[in-house]
Amino acid sequence: MAATRRPGRNHLFVPGPTNIPDRVQRAMLVPSEDHRSVEFPELTKPLFEDTKKVFGSTDGTIFLFPASGTGIWESALTNTLARGDKVLASRFGQFSHLWIDMAKRLGLDVVVQEEAWGTGADPAKIEQALRDDKNHDIKAVMVVHNETATGVTSDVGAVRKAIDAAGHPALLFVDGVSSIGSLPFNATEWKVDCAIAGSQKGLMLPAGLGVICVSPKTIKIAEGSAGSNDRLARVYFDWEDHKKQNHLGYFPYTPSLPLLYGLREALACLFEEGLENVYHRHHVLGEATRQAVAAWGLKTCAKEPKWNSDTVTAIVVPEGVDAAKIIKHAFVRYNLALGAGLSEVAGKVFRIGHVGDLNELSLLGAIAGAEMSMIDNGINVTPGSGVAAASSYLRENPLSKS
Q: Among 109, 128, 146, 330, whose Cα sits 20 to 30 Å from the Cα of 271?
């Protein structure tokens, strides 16, 4: 039996994939073309330079892969490390866990620093671990900038200071999948050696385009050991193949043409708004969501304000309530897609993503829907309380600085 049509748009408020601007969708409606033509570099060459701006990089190298963020994780590890190399990683959520799991499966020796879910990377512990590593066996430090499972943002700048304070040569790898394009990111200032992004978050595209920004230092490391027998195996994600083609405006294999055209338009959207305004808008929307949570009498998964993410808020439901029921009801009854709790917080939280192409009224719709779903599921929330608190904050805090 066919499902009954639900009128109106689906309200997408997971922390990725995010809403795609209409102009970006139109830009992706392109016919197939010859990706080896003499005109093709007119599209691609500017992308390699313009994308660096979103990473806050002045000297990095951009690689664009037909992949998700997971693929770009693999690219960072396999192009720089050898089997048995030691890496240091903080685990405080599902996505930091998955990166650690990948590193182990690739044959790396992972030193895991366990942190409470709801907190982030601890620069002091990272510094001490590096000071204790007298022989410099640790080759890289892996940090998730924005942990979407718990709504936590770590201080990457502080991690870089910790590495420098320890006088350690370890590379700094940062997962910026749910932060780059939405939160301030300074790859050059923070001396990030590999910064990873996915197209389906702040870049406001469908999933399928993975982006990595690689520092000059890391490029040299990869070049210096490209032929080593103990290097991790790679073919599809090999940077050397891309370097031979990218500077000419081409790729070593067939790229996703619609996503490249979409990326050009998405970057235009970000630059027209202004990156500082983009970051400010996300902060205002994030704080408005937190105001709603407080008005409901609930708590966020982030244990202290310093951990608050401006792209996603994970909301802890009362004891005895199954958050999965709130999410399912919101989708079936109100056509609202909320993020589910993952792993350790499964059934304990639901998540409101406030990332990408959103404004005040968009967010208020999500808050209203979440509020109604909670009330329908027996949570003692005052009707209208979250909407009132969020709207009051939004009226007093414009989304644009200018």
A: 146
Whole-model pTM: value is 0.96
Structure tokens at 131: 């000071």
Conformational region of residue 224, where left means phi above 0, alpha means psi within -120 to 50, and beta covers everything else = alpha
Q: Tokens 């991790």 correspond to what residue?
A: 232
**Helices 360-376, 323-334: inter-axial angle, 10-degree rounding:** 120
Find where tokens 């939405």 sit. Answer: 182
Across the strands, what pairs with 211?
A: 64, 197
pLDDT one-digit tens code per residue, 103-136: 999 999 999 999 999 999 999 999 999 999 999 9
Q: How far is CA 256 from the centre of its chain?
A: 21
Residue 89 belongs to what H/E stretch? strand 86-91
Packing angle between helix 275-296 and helix 257-273, nearest 10 degrees? 80
Angle made by CA atoms 196, 155, 63, in degrees to the nearest 5 = 15
Q: Which residues of 174-194 are buried (b: 16+ CB within 10 A; e: fewer)?
A: bbbbbbbbbbbbebeebbbbb
Torsions phi, psi of 329, nearest 5?
Answer: -65, -40
CA–CA distance from 73 to each of 66, 176, 184 (Å)? 13, 10, 21
> Do residues 208 and 88 touch, judged by C-beta distance below 8 A?
no
Residues 379 and 397: their CA atoms lie apart, in Å, by 29
DSSP 316-377: EPPTT--HHHHHHHHHHHH-EEEEEP-GGGTTTEEEEE--SS--HHHHHHHHHHHHHHHHHT
Cα 50 to Cα 181: distance, rounded to the nearest angstrom: 12
Beta bridge partners of 280: none
What is the pairing mode between strands 194-198 and 210-214? antiparallel
For 362-401, write each residue's pLDDT tens digit: 999 999 999 999 999 999 999 999 999 999 999 999 999 8
State the Cα–Cα distance between residues 148 and 299, nearest whole angstrom: 16
Residue at token pair 């001490």? 128
